[in-house]
Amino acid sequence: MLALGKNTCVFSGTANPALAAEIAKEMGKPLGDLEVTRFPDGEIFVKYMENIRGADVFIIQPTCAPPNETLMELLILIDAAKRASASRITAVIPFYGYARQDRKDQPRVPITAKLVANLITVAGASRILAVDLHSQQIQGFFDIPVDHLNAAPVMVPYLRDKLGKEGVVVAPDSGSVKLAQTYCDMLNAGLAVVAKRRINALSVESSHLVGDVEGRICLLTDDLTTTAGTLTAAASLLKKEGAKKVYAAVTHCLLGSVGRARLMDSCIDELVVTNSIPVTDNCNGKIKVVSIAKLLSEGITRIHEGTSVSSLFKIHDK
Fold first, then answer.
1. What's the pLDDT at 206?
2. Which CATH number is 166's domain given?
């Protein structure tokens, strides 16, 4: 376990208390005492129940479902810490919501990822610690330092046993190629790419495959999945092209009822995810959860000590 100075305070919002508890255990210190309640009309009220004046404060809060509630709670937690005279406030955001709208790709639409970055900064955050942002450019939306961690080093030891020596990492769409290449390098595997066409918000069609997957064990990689449309369509194409088995690795598992039903009916043998957000349904064992608590605890330690976080991009063997 990692020992930190007494002036380091780690608090958890209500979005993912189980992950926060794991992080605190890895760090060898209890979570800070925090009260989160609601007024009768639903407004959020927070109060730090201990002195944080001059402290290095870390607030763990993914902005997952319900995103409006968890985001607003994060903003209020940051504001309260600022007004309590914390010396530095780091927002630890294992999952950064509202990230899909990161550019203006059609008329009269917002760039919500930038709006959320502005809100967090204005609330009083000093820096951000995030895991697998939906796109790299989101780091540039912040005018404060961003430490962007990758979950691949945590997931690779488990995946290596599944793929063996005949594995192929597959990007389910063009936007996932860079992430797929990261897994490809770590697993020393081949690389393939699926071309997809989005029909609507719930439906995706995978039409072409670039690469050889016949008789191979395939690993689909993506940063998040909500409806599982992209993954299941790509997996179906891979099976048609002769893939022996199909696994998927996704950092953020946002599956709703539609996504879980699709996953259960799909030819994906196993979906490997992290606990960046709570996973309450493992779809009869089809979902495997890998913890990023150690990754984040080390990230918090290095930020507090002012040392490099680059070592966290190395594979975390068990």
1. 56
2. 3.40.50.2020
Sheet with 56-60: list strands edge to edge. 8-12, 56-60, 88-93, 127-131, 146-149
What residues are labeled active site? 196
Split at pLDDT 50, 70, 90, the class of 2 is very low
Question: And the tokens for 163?
Answer: 């793929």
The average pLDDT across 226-250 equals 95
109, two tokens:
């639409």
The pLDDT, as a whole number, for residue 103 is: 92
Identify the domain containing residue 181 by its residue range: 152-290
Beginning with the edge strand found earlier in the chain, give each strand of the sheet holding 204-210 in spatial order: 204-210, 190-198, 167-171, 217-225, 245-253, 270-274, 287-290
* 206 shares a domain with 132: no
**Residue bearing tokens 């937690």:** 77
**Angle of the 229-240 helix axis to the 257-265 helix axis, nearest 10:** 10
